[in-house]
Design a protein that fits this description.
The complex is a heterodimer of chains A (159) and B (144). Helix content of chain A is 45%, strand content 0%. Chain A is globular. Helix content of chain B is 34%, strand content 0%. In chain B, helix 3 runs antiparallel to helix 4. Chain B is globular and about 40 Å long. Classes of the chains: A mainly alpha (159), B mainly alpha (144).
């Protein structure tokens, strides 16, 4: 899947989010332990628009029901982007922590950045978690999370 | 043995592991860069961010925004700053395959955690290598 396609899907997700402006969101629940904002994700947002669910599902070659996601915590750590279990989720489930930001070993190797699959979201995790630590989750969720993703996907590299 | 602390950029990049750093740059690689971009070979080799005041052929005029900021605040590393991490360290997908900017924050966090000496000796090289050569697995990083 190309970056161009991901960006188009992201824009669809943002449109859905805009339409739901004013809806009450449990940001703590809808932030994955790794710092990914599920509330920003098209797989979560498509449950509010069947037509868009069908469009986006078609891009992934899946059915709409396959892609609709309740968010990491609602799905017991099974992220729709990958057909495998998440070890961050397994790790944190054995603790009383909400996000990796609370962990004394943060950041561990589970949050390692990669060039591989850079069109997906993993390189934003550590930054989001640091910002959550810095400003608190609510403020990060309302004021920063979406911008972090936009900067990640649309920003131009400079030294 | 060169001082790795002095060869760590304020943004957390490990100059001492960079392929353009004077101790690492090979003739072949310099030739390759020269043939690609056309700049003189003497401008390709780098003595390190701090040693060259953040100036290298990569950089647009005006210098490096991060280095300029750290000088103003009279700090050594971004992780010493009250505003850490700021937007200057935000990850970007653009050129993520060619450049290691997405390891800056991870490096700085590890430096904060284990100290710069241990990071430089035990972690920096591996982080860079895993960034470029590792395969992403959801929620696993490179943990075994």
């Amino acid at each position: 899947m190309t970056m161009e396609v991901f960006l188009r899907i992201r824009e669809m997700g943002k449109e859905l989010k805009r339409r739901r402006n004013g809806e009450e969101i449990d940001y703590e629940y809808m932030t994955a332990p790794c710092g990914i904002p599920c509330f920003e994700c098209y797989f979560y947002l498509v449950q509010f628009d069947q037509h868009m669910a069908e469009t986006i599902a078609g891009v992934f070659g899946l059915s709409p029901d396959d892609i609709k996601c309740k968010g990491c915590r609602g799905e017991n750590g099974k992220c729709r982007h990958h057909a495998m279990e998440c070890r961050v989720y397994t790790c944190i489930s054995n603790t009383g922590m909400k996000t990796c930001a609370e962990c004394e070993t943060f950041p561990c190797e589970y949050l390692h950045p990669y060039r591989d699959c850079a069109e997906k979201w993993h390189n934003t995790k550590v930054f989001s978690l640091c910002r959550i630590k810095q400003v608190g989750l609510e403020k990060w969720a309302k004021e920063e999370a979406g911008d972090i993703l936009d900067k990640y996907f649309y920003g131009t590299w400079t030294l | 043995m060169k001082d790795k602390k002095g060869l760590t950029a304020p943004c957390g990049l490990d100059c001492f592991n960079c392929e353009l750093y004077e101790d690492n740059l090979t003739t072949d690689f310099a030739e390759f860069i020269h043939s690609k971009i056309g700049i003189p070979k003497e401008d390709i080799v780098c003595k390190g961010c701090r040693q060259q005041d953040g100036k290298h052929y990569h950089i647009l005029s005006g210098g490096c925004a991060t280095l300029n900021c750290i000088k103003l605040r009279r700090l050594e590393l971004c992780c010493d700053c009250d505003d850490f991490p700021c937007a200057l360290l935000a990850p970007i997908a653009d050129k993520a395959a060619q450049y290691p900017h997405n390891i800056k924050l991870y490096n700085l966090c590890r430096i904060k955690k284990v100290g710069i000496d241990r990071w430089a000796e035990k972690e920096a090289g591996e982080i860079r290598q895993k960034y470029f050569k590792g395969t992403f697995v959801v929620g696993k990083g490179q943990a075994g």
